[in-house]
Specification:
Length: about 80
């Protein structure tokens, strides 16, 4: 009797990386745009202190992601 289960080819690490990169980077850009929309003073109001807190938190988060060359590349792209 033949095996009825479908066999899946396991992806190598490089293929898996590229697949996840292609899914996650566009999503991250979308969410960065949404955060940027919060700066629109005609739609939202915020204090200078709140703005400073957001910038500080963004800096801390970016520092966490600057450990590997790919993360540094992403930081460079985000700063353009």
């Amino acid at each position: 009797m033949e095996n009825d289960k479908t066999t899946f080819k396991r992806k190598n690490n490089s293929e898996h990386f590229v697949e996840l990169l292609n899914k996650r980077v566009p999503k991250s850009f979308k969410y960065l745009d949404l955060v940027g929309n919060l700066a629109n003073k005609s739609n939202y109001s915020y204090t200078v202190e709140q703005s400073k807190q957001i910038k500080k938190l963004q800096g801390i988060k970016l520092m966490r992601y600057s450990k590997s060359p790919i993360q540094q590349m992403i930081l460079i792209i985000l700063s353009l």
